[in-house]
Backbone:
């Protein structure tokens, strides 16, 4: 390292300004960064300015800049509808349910897998449970449909077997607050399990050896050693998820309920609302107001979460 | 003394038995819908309507797969899915590794700033409408490039690769530099080949993401049938399923010849077959995927 610095310092440099000096010494590095940098600027940062259309009466002919301003009118329209409350409630409610269920189930299953005597079986179960994580939401929506459709597994086999009434799930909104968390767990729980298993593997075995000498049984070991060691990881994961509580997985909420209008009151979230407003009504004003609302509240929540994470573990902070 | 050891063992055995049974149930619940779909996809279409297909086909038939692939639409969609996946993976790896290398160089003063610029993209997004208008204004609507270009650099992968490059000895780049090699040559000839293990991991992430994506086709390319992907074809089939349940004519949605459809295949079987076609590539790479994923997960959690 010091070797390289002396090589660099020996070069004759005439620029006075720090930036230009840096540019001339590391020309190639700047050139290599340029393409991805331009791309990320156009693709991520440029649209952020586009968010101003929430304050405009946007039309395609005039475009971003020339469309007339409309002040807070779009937001007034949005918050006057009952949709605004409904989608906010659904977005936050589902996310909270996912956070709690994911944490409890992932930690429990990770503990169980870790305690299994047969390492082969543990590996096998982990592989099976992780599989749905890699399937697309379209495929998952089909698998759910094959269970819940009028001639699916439930109505054709489970209901007759248990003497239950057949249910037309796709027209009954009251069931979806239970169906969606189950589907979400089914698809995503593998990720959490792998995360916590990695955490458990990192615990020094000496703690367990000492506990065994003291006569502690498995349950006592889990309570006194494993769980306390996992707590920081649990807190960091939960805080990050809380930071994203205003966003939802579009695939889950759009694909799995199959866009059935009747299910909207219990399956509509901010993301699907914005999308539907864009596509079906073409009302850019209200949907971009909803988008702005989501981005700004989401931004504040991520900052708060990041601050919280920093309190627990400096190395897990995002920035 | 002997008694107490025995008691602990019995307790431990019960504990182990309970755990194994619990996990077995969980595994069955996880796998069943998938196995059932495989069974239906290999079962005779008309026979499936009678119900009662669970774990294996009753009247084995390849007719469903034949019907899926005989039509140009699905075959073309399969080709587009493969093309976008391969192209996205190759370009993604090249650009992300190049960026990761520059950001791993300690003497590069802007690396902190640029890292933050990229990491921010993981957490902040302007939202769907500004993005939609951007793609529209860039004339990427109904354009194959929209499958590849917007996702060329992913911040998570960037961090994974950069962390890996930092573990390589500095002396390699230094001695090449003394020999007069420029930064780009050092990257191409020394760093890039050494990164292969981590690139295998990242390539799998990118490929799976690209293969599974449907939203870009749906939002940006639904106007051109020849740009349709496999996921989008399956999605269209599903959307039509909820409207017209069990109507054999629906098989036309994938362009299956009406005569064939009436005689041999049904929408249920066609949907099952396409589902399996759309997920088979994932299953093929799954053993590698899982192994690499765990590595990537632990590396990617360290941001700075």
Residues:
């Amino acid at each position: 390292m010091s070797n390289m610095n002396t090589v660099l310092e020996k070069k004759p440099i005439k620029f006075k300004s720090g930036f230009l000096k840096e540019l001339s010494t590391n020309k190639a590095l700047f050139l290599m960064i340029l393409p991805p940098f331009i791309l990320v600027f156009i693709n991520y940062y440029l649209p952020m300015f586009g968010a101003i259309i929430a304050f405009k009466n946007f039309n395609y002919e005039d475009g971003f800049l020339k469309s007339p301003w409309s002040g807070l009118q779009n937001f007034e329209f949005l918050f006057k509808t009952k949709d605004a409350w409904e989608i906010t409630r659904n977005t936050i409610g589902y996310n909270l349910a996912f956070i709690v269920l994911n944490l409890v189930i992932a930690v429990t299953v990770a503990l169980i897998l870790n305690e299994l005597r047969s390492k082969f079986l543990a590996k096998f179960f982990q592989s099976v449970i992780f599989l749905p994580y890699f399937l697309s939401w379209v495929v998952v929506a089909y698998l759910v449909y094959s269970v819940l459709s009028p001639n699916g597994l439930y109505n054709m086999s489970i209901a007759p077997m248990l003497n239950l009434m057949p249910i037309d799930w796709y027209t009954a909104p009251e069931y979806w607050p239970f169906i969606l968390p189950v589907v979400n767990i089914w698809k995503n729980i593998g990720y959490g399990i792998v995360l916590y298993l990695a955490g458990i593997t990192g615990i020094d075995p000496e703690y367990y050896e000492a506990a065994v000498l003291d006569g502690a049984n498995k349950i006592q070991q889990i309570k006194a050693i494993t769980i306390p060691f996992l707590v920081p990881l649990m807190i960091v994961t939960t805080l990050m998820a809380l930071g994203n509580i205003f966003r939802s997985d579009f695939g889950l909420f759009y694909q799995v309920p199959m866009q059935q209008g009747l299910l909207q009151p219990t399956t509509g979230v901010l993301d699907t609302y914005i999308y539907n407003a864009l596509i079906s009504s073409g009302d850019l004003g209200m949907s971009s107001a909803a988008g702005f609302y989501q981005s700004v509240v989401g931004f504040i929540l991520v900052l708060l979460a990041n601050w919280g994470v920093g309190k627990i573990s400096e190395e897990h902070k995002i920035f | 003394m002997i008694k107490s050891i025995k008691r602990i063992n019995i307790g431990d055995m019960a504990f182990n038995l309970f755990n194994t049974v619990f996990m077995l149930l969980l595994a069955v619940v996880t796998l069943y819908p998938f196995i059932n779909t495989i069974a239906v996809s290999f079962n005779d279409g008309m026979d499936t309507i009678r119900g009662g297909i669970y774990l294996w086909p009753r009247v084995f038939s390849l007719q469903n797969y034949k019907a899926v692939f005989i039509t140009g639409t699905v075959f073309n969609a399969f080709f587009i899915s493969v093309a976008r996946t391969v192209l996205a993976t190759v370009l993604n790896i090249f650009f992300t590794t190049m960026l990761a290398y520059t950001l791993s160089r300690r003497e590069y003063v802007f690396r902190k700033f640029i890292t933050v610029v990229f990491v921010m993209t993981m957490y902040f997004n302007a939202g769907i409408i500004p993005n939609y208008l951007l793609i529209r204004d860039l004339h990427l609507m109904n354009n194959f490039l929209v499958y590849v270009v917007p996702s060329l650099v992913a911040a998570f992968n960037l961090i994974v690769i950069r962390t890996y490059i930092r573990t390589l000895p500095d002396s390699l780049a230094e001695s090449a530099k003394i020999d007069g090699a420029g930064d780009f040559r050092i990257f191409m000839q020394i760093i890039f080949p050494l990164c292969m293990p981590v690139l295998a991991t990242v390539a799998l992430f990118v490929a799976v993401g690209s293969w599974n994506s449907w939203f870009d086709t749906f939002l940006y390319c639904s106007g051109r049938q020849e740009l349709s992907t496999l996921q989008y074809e399956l999605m269209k089939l599903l959307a039509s399923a909820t409207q017209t349940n069990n109507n054999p004519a629906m098989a036309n949605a994938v362009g299956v010849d009406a005569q064939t459809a009436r005689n041999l295949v049904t929408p249920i079987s066609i949907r099952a077959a396409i589902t399996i076609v759309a997920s088979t590539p994932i299953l093929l790479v799954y053993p590698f995927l899982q192994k690499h994923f765990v590595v990537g997960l632990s590396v990617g959690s360290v941001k700075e």
Remarks:
- Chain B has one domain: 61-304.
